[in-house]
C-alpha cells in the first residue's frame, strides 16, 4: 500500500486548511528566444514585448517581455547585454534592481497606509541561482500585495525576473516560476519551442468538503501537501482532513473495505500502544456515516480511565473513496464537549 496513505493515518493530531483552487480551463505558455525560459501559467495572460530602450537598469541594450493578467498581477522577464559575471559588477547591478523595486513599494505602502516587510534570499530555478528580494504590503481589508525581483548572470548577460501578485494568486504563480525551465541556459544554439498548452482538465472533479468550522476553533498550517484542513481549539483537541491522489493506481485495485481493514487496523494498533503505555483502557466501534450522499466508513476509539471508566481521549476516523481519491477526516478530543461539537459538525457536512 502507498506509504503516504499509511503515514497519514498517524496525522490524527496535526494538519491545516488550503483552499482548493478550481481547475483552469485555459493556460498561457511563454518561451523567451535567448535562454529558452519556458513558463507555463494557468489562465489567460497577455504577452507584450518591451521596447529595447525601455526599462534597462544597466543602461545597456536589452530585450524584455511582460506577461500580464491584470495591473496588479504580472511577470516581467528581461535580458540585458551587460556582463555581470564579475562579483562586484553583479552586486552593483543587483542593488540597482533592488533599490528600484524598494522605492516603488515604499511609495505604494505610504499611499495605501500598508504595513510592509521584505526578505532577501537565493532562489534556484532549473539549476540557475538567482538573488531575490521579496516585498509584501498588507493594507487594511485588502489582500496582501507581493512583489519579487530576481537577478542572475546567465552566460554573459544580465537576467531579471519581476513578479507582482496579490495573495489570491501568488502561490500558483510562484509554483509556476519554480516549475519553469531554461532549455538554452548558455544562450547558444536553437531554442527548444515551448510545449503546447495543457489540455482541458479531466472531467473527474476534485472533491469539495462543505464543512463549517465550529465556533472557537481556528485553522493551523499544513504539514503535507495532502492536508486540506486542520483546526484546533488550542487545548490539544484537533481535526484534520486529508485528500490523497491515486498516484500509484493503488486505489483503483482496492475496495473501500480493503482500505478500511488496512487503515483501521493500523489506527487500532497505534491507539492500543498508546493505551498500554499510559495504563488506560481501550475500546472501539465501527459504523457507516453518510455525508451528503457519500458513505464514509467510521471508527471511534476511546481510551478510558481504569477507575472511572470515563474517556480520557477519543479518536475518530472517517474514510471514503471520493472521485477516485482517498478522503480521510480524523479528529482527537480530550473532553466530551470537543467530541460532541466535532461529531455534530462533521455529520452536518457534505461532500460534492
Give a summary of the structure in a few sentences.
The chain is of the alpha+beta class and 352 residues long. The chain is 23% helix and 39% strand.
Overall pLDDT: 85
| Share of β-strand residues | 35-45%
SSE ordering: HEEEEEHEEEEHEEEEEHEEEEHE
Number of strands: 19
| Helical run tally | 5
Helical fraction: 10-25%
- Largest sheet, described in full? 7 strands, antiparallel
- Which strand order do you get reading across the main beta sheet? 3-4-5-9-8-7-6
Low-confidence stretches at least 5 residues in length (pLDDT < 50)? 1-25
Quaternary structure of the protein: single chain
Radius of gyration from the alpha-carbon trace, in angstroms: 26 Å
| Spatial shape | elongated
Structural class comes to: alpha+beta
Separation, N- and C-terminal Cα atoms? 26 Å
Note the main attributes of this structure.
7-stranded antiparallel sheet; 352 residues; elongated; alpha+beta; 5 helices
Commentary on this structure:
The structure is a single chain. The protein is α+β, with helices and mostly antiparallel strands and 352 residues long. It contains five helices and 19 strands. The protein has helices at 3-9, 87-112, 167-178, 256-278, 336-347, and strands spanning 27-31, 37-42, 46-50, 62-70, 73-80, 115-125, 128-138, 145-154, 157-166, 181-182, 209-210, 218-219, 227-232, 238-244, 281-291, 294-304, 311-322, 325-333, 350-351. Strands 3-4-5-9-8-7-6 form a seven-stranded antiparallel β-sheet, with helices on both faces. A hairpin with a 5-residue loop joins strand 13 and strand 14. The longest helix is centred in the first third of the chain and has 26 residues, at 87-112. The radius of gyration is 26 Å and the shape is elongated. The two termini are 26 Å apart. Mean pLDDT is 85; it is low at 1-25.
Amino acid at each position: 500500500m502507498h506509504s503516504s496513505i499509511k503515514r497519514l493515518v498517524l496525522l490524527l493530531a496535526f494538519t491545516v486548511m488550503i483552499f482548493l483552487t478550481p481547475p483552469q480551463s485555459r493556460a498561457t505558455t511563454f518561451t523567451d528566444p535567448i535562454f529558452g525560459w519556458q513558463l507555463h501559467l494557468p489562465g489567460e495572460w497577455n504577452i507584450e514585448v518591451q521596447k529595447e530602450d525601455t526599462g534597462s537598469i544597466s543602461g545597456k541594450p536589452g530585450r524584455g517581455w511582460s506577461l500580464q493578467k491584470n495591473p496588479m498581477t504580472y511577470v516581467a522577464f528581461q535580458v540585458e547585454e551587460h556582463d555581470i559575471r564579475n562579483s562586484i559588477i553583479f552586486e552593483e547591478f543587483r542593488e540597482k534592481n533592488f533599490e528600484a523595486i524598494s522605492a516603488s513599494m515604499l511609495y505604494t505602502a505610504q499611499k495605501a497606509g500598508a504595513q510592509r516587510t521584505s526578505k532577501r534570499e537565493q532562489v534556484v530555478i532549473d539549476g540557475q541561482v538567482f538573488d531575490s528580494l521579496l516585498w509584501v504590503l498588507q493594507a487594511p481589508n485588502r489582500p496582501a500585495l507581493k512583489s519579487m525581483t530576481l537577478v542572475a548572470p546567465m552566460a554573459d548577460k544580465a537576467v531579471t525576473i519581476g513578479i507582482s501578485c496579490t495573495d489570491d494568486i501568488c502561490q500558483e504563480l510562484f509554483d509556476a516560476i519554480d516549475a519553469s525551465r531554461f532549455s538554452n541556459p548558455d544562450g547558444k544554439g536553437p531554442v527548444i519551442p515551448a510545449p503546447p498548452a495543457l489540455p482541458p482538465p479531466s472531467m473527474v472533479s476534485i472533491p469539495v468538503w462543505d464543512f463549517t468550522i465550529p465556533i472557537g476553533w481556528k485553522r493551523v498550517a499544513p504539514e503535507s501537501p495532502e492536508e486540506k484542513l486542520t483546526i484546533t481549539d488550542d487545548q490539544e483537541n484537533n481535526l484534520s482532513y486529508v485528500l490523497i491522489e491515486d498516484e500509484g493506481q493503488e486505489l483503483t485495485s482496492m475496495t473501500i473495505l480493503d482500505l478500511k481493514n488496512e487503515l483501521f487496523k493500523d489506527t487500532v494498533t497505534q491507539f492500543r500502544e498508546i493505551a498500554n503505555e499510559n495504563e488506560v483502557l481501550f475500546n472501539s466501534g465501527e459504523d457507516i456515516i453518510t455525508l451528503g450522499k457519500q458513505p464514509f466508513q467510521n471508527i471511534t476509539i476511546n481510551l478510558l480511565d481504569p477507575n472511572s471508566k470515563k474517556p480520557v481521549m477519543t479518536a475518530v476516523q472517517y474514510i471514503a473513496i471520493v472521485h477516485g481519491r482517498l478522503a480521510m477526516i480524523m479528529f482527537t478530543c480530550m473532553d466530551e464537549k470537543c467530541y460532541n461539537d466535532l461529531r455534530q459538525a462533521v455529520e452536518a457536512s457534505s461532500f460534492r
